[in-house]
């Protein structure tokens, strides 16, 4: 009897130590990201994704880190490399699960980044697709604040030259801010970002 | 018992958690350290990022032989097997990834547009927002270097070559009749609306072994893989109406675009220099169906076009005007599949069919012809690595052409030809490094009608000299079945294929929104068709002993950076060419070639006005013409040509656009050439009439309305 218990204990210990590794790794990656070490953070997420294929989160963050990193960069070669890396990481998860709203929000972010790099070439090509991705995300998860806010914000940004009425879009931003308050991330590492940007957008609406 | 278990457990955990440190350095091919590279044991959490000096060190619980992965953004990922116990202070070299933006690309001869092009000389929107192009793909391409604007013809003339020396392809399949029919000396248009195409690659020479039966150039058009959304588009124009609809489903989509053009109201308002008895009318449509498979895409493209006009044209040889009543029906269909299979294999298979029927009554004479053309194609490509790709394929063309001519309601003459061309080709793309690349190919073809075979080599190299500049060189041999104007009389004559060789040297500088291209070329023609009569006729005697050359310099500068909201480009072409062909008695510069051509295109976006305003100025020096009053052949030269066009697109709301354009703002009195009388008049002089545009200016006003769920979309890209 004792023998069985010990074996179980040992087994649980091994499992929990593996779980601990995931959490430890994710924690460290977030720490690096917070410190502005984008490359190191992306590397860390990438290593976790290679070791633990069961969670979609590491690849999601590889995509997120590289996409957000691309926004401040002028060098097109570098931007191209970052966005390709982001796209590859996202593709790896999208193929496993086509019903995850966060992945569609991420895809919309990558398209937006392409538009930011070269609006003349990519504007027409990607703006429709960006909206389409947000719409899909919203359909899958109507309460997801990132989907609601992302879609509204993207259209507000475009309103400068499309001349679209921003009033209903600003109402959407308000709605998203409400959703941020009620949104419950499924795990400690699940995406929960976006509130600060939404508040910023709300300020600009007034 | 308890102690044994505990002992076992602790032993087990010891082996499980005993750690080894592995360390080393990551460098590039030149030995320069790479910072921020990701180094880890595959399948474990153990790894590290390299420091500024490229160093890494990390502890691992893994033992024995493991895969060590080293990756960094712009390098090829390395995956090596290491013995964990003995991996300390080792250096790993990462090779440059040749798939990055800053790698060399082969640019000699090709002008690319669209998403796949790394250095776009034309952006997708340009086709339609270039003033003077009026949505005609070919007119936009005529603002690029290496082309000659031939105002009375409208087709693409490339580097001293005749218009039929350019072949057009849609999704890799040949289009046998890319232009609509038009009266003598009035320009034709490309049949394709820019709306359905996402990428254009225009090669002015030295192109890939994949393409054949073209002496000068290929124009490759690719339909959009995936439309952005379902929508309906309505256009109301001074020249007609258009309706488009796109439906998008989960894996497939369908787009249709139809238009009805009738110039009657327009010509009632704007006086024309020619007399139309019935203004040109055309009903046309294009459709694309796409189906996405897991690893491939199937596309079906179809276009139809029915047009007619009746014109009374002055003719220097007759007192009365000549009435031409013309009807043209055209159908084009193609289907293609492009997909991946196995380990990095890519397959392209396609079939195209083109049918063209023309009926023309010229006073009392009747001319009718019909062409059926089929193209089949199979292409396989294997990516052995980023650095070596091999493709090979087969191409098969069948053409049947029948024509009949009835003179003055009398006897009818029937003639025509049938031809098949079979070709095999193979080509390798090789990257020696990020700086040096080559494309080496060969095409073997057999032509049934001309009864000849060719082995045509195609070679190009590119070398990157500095971060933003590179040199390319291309060489190729090309052959083509002679023009239908000749080979329709094949019954009594045996023709041979015409031949050309191209040598191209290209320099390109490209940096953030600015591109400079300079290209020098030499083209050698041989085996050109000659005939002995004043015009081509069934009883002409043909030979294949013509020849010629073309050499020149093309310059292109594009800048969208220096001035905010202003995008402009400048093209300049110098050409020196002579040909001994047709019924030319001596080798001279043909009448469609000006020595110097200059185009300046500007587009300015005014945010406050929600408008885009564009100007295009095309200038070329005079073109040669033959004056039979002079003894020397082709000794005349027209005065220079200039056209300033203007356009204005105004966004009423996001989805409603008002568009206005006018050509030849300055009202230049352009003359393309002269028609001389066949016989001299009483004074012994040959009289002449000038070949001029049908009207001094062309005005266009259009209203474009998009109806879709996404309110941001509009037809700006169609203008």
From TrEMBL, chain A:
Signal as UniProt keyword: yes
Keyword Signal: yes
Signal peptide residue numbers: 1-18
Domain of life: Bacteria
UniProt protein name: Uncharacterized protein
Keywords: Signal
From TrEMBL, chain B:
Coiled coil regions in record: none
Keywords, ordered alphabetically: Cell outer membrane, Membrane, Receptor, Signal, TonB box, Transmembrane, Transmembrane beta strand, Transport
Membrane association type: Multi-pass membrane protein
Domain TonB-dependent receptor-like beta-barrel, residue spans: 321-665
Keyword Membrane among record annotations: yes
InterPro entries: Beta-barrel_TonB (IPR000531), Plug_dom (IPR012910), TonB-dep_rcpt-like (IPR039426)
Record has Transport as a keyword: yes
Name assigned to this protein: TonB-dependent receptor
Subcellular location: Cell outer membrane
Family per record: Belongs to the TonB-dependent receptor family.
A Pfam family the protein falls into: CarbopepD_reg_2
Domain TonB-dependent receptor plug: 117-213
Highest taxon listed in the record's lineage: Bacteria
Signal sequence annotation: 1-18
């Amino acid at each position: 009897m004792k023998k069985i218990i010990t074996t179980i204990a040992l087994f649980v210990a091994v499992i929990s130590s593996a779980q601990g590794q995931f959490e430890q790794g994710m924690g460290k990656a977030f720490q690096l990201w917070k410190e502005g070490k984008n490359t190191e953070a992306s590397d860390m997420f990438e290593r976790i994704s290679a070791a633990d294929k069961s969670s979609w989160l590491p690849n999601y963050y590889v995509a997120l880190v590289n996409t957000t990193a691309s926004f401040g960069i002028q060098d097109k070669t570098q931007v191209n490399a970052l966005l390709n890396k982001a796209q590859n990481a996202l593709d790896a998860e999208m193929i496993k699960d086509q019903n995850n709203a966060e992945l569609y929000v991420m895809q919309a972010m990558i398209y937006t980044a392409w538009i930011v790099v070269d609006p003349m070439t990519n504007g027409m090509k990607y703006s429709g697709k960006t909206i389409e991705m947000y719409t899909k995300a919203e359909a899958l998860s109507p309460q997801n604040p990132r989907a609601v806010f992302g879609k509204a914000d993207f259209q507000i940004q475009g309103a400068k030259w499309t001349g679209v009425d921003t009033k209903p879009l600003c109402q959407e931003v308000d709605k998203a801010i409400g959703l941020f308050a009620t949104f419950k991330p499924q795990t400690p590492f699940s995406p929960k970002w976006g509130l600060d940007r939404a508040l910023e957008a709300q300020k600009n609406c007034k | 018992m308890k102690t044994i278990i505990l002992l076992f457990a602790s032993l087990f955990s010891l082996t499980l958690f005993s750690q080894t440190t592995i360390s080393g350095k990551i460098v590039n091919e030149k030995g320069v350290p790479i910072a921020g590279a990701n180094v880890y044991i595959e399948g474990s959490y153990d790894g590290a990022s390299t420091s500024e000096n490229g160093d890494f060190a990390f502890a691992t619980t893994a033992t024995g032989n493991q895969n060590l992965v080293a990756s960094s953004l712009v390098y090829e990922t390395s995956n090596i097997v290491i013995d964990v116990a003995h991996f300390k202070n080792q250096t790993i070299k990462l090779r440059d990834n040749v798939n990055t933006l800053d790698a060399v690309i082969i640019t000699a001869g090709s002008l690319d547009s669209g998403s796949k092009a790394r250095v776009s000389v034309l952006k997708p929107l340009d086709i339609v927002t270039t003033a003077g192009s009026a949505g005609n793909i070919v007119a936009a391409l005529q603002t690029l270097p290496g082309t000659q604007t031939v105002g009375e013809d409208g087709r693409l003339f490339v580097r001293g070559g005749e218009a039929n020396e350019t072949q057009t392809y849609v999704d890799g399949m040949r289009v046998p009749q890319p232009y609509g029919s038009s009266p003598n000396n009035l320009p034709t248009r490309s049949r394709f609306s820019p709306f359905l195409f996402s990428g254009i690659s225009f090669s002015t020479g030295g192109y890939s072994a994949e393409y054949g039966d073209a002496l000068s150039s290929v124009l490759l058009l690719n339909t959009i893989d995936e439309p952005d959304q379902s929508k309906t588009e309505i256009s109301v124009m001074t020249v007609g109406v258009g309706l488009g609809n796109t439906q998008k489903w989960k894996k497939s989509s369908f787009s249709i675009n139809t238009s009805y053009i009738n110039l009657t109201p327009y010509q009632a308002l704007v006086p024309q220099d020619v007399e139309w008895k019935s203004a040109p009318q055309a009903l046309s449509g294009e459709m694309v169906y796409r189906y996405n498979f897991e690893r491939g895409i199937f596309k079906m493209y179809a276009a139809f076009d029915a047009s007619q006009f009746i014109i009374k044209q002055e003719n220097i040889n007759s007192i009365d005007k000549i009435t031409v009543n013309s009807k043209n029906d055209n159908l084009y269909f193609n289907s293609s599949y492009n997909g991946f299979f196995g380990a990095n294999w890519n397959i392209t298979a396609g079939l195209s069919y083109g049918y063209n029927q023309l009926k023309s009554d010229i006073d009392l004479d009747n001319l009718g012809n019909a062409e059926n053309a089929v193209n089949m194609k199979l292409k396989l490509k294997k990516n052995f690595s980023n650095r070596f790709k091999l493709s090979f394929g087969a191409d098969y063309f069948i053409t049947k052409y029948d024509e009949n001519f009835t003179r003055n309601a009398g006897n009818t003459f029937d003639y025509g030809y049938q031809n098949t061309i079979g070709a095999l080709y193979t080509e390798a793309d090789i990257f020696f490094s990020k700086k040096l690349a080559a494309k080496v190919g060969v095409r073997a073809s057999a032509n049934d009608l001309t009864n000849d075979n060719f082995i045509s080599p195609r070679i190009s190299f590119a070398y990157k000299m500095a971060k933003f500049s590179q040199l390319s060189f291309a060489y190729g041999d090309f052959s083509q079945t002679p023009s239908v104007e000749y080979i329709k009389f094949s019954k009594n004559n045996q023709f041979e294929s015409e031949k050309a060789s191209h040598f191209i040297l290209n320099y390109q500088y490209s940096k953030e929104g600015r591109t400079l291209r300079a290209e020098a070329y030499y083209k050698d023609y041989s085996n050109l068709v000659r005939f002995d009569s004043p015009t081509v006729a069934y009883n002409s005697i043909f030979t294949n002993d013509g020849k010629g050359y073309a050499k020149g310099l093309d310059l292109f500068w594009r800048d969208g950076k220096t001035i905010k909201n202003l995008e402009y480009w400048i093209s300049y072409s110098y050409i020196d060419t002579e040909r001994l062909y047709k019924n030319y008695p001596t080798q001279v510069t043909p009448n469609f070639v000006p020595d110097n051509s200059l185009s300046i295109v500007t587009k300015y976006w005014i945010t406050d006005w929600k408008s885009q305003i564009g100007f295009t100025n095309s200038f070329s020096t005079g073109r040669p013409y033959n004056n039979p009053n002079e003894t020397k052949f082709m000794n005349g030269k027209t005065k220079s040509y200039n056209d300033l066009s203007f356009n204005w697109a105004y966004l009423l709301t996001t989805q409603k656009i008002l568009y206005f354009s006018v050509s030849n703002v300055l009202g230049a009195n352009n003359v393309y050439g002269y028609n001389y009388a066949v016989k001299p008049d009483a004074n012994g002089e040959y009289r002449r009439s000038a070949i001029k545009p049908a009207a001094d200016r062309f005005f266009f006003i259009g209203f474009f309305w998009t109806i879709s769920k996404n309110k941001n979309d509009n037809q700006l890209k169609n203008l």
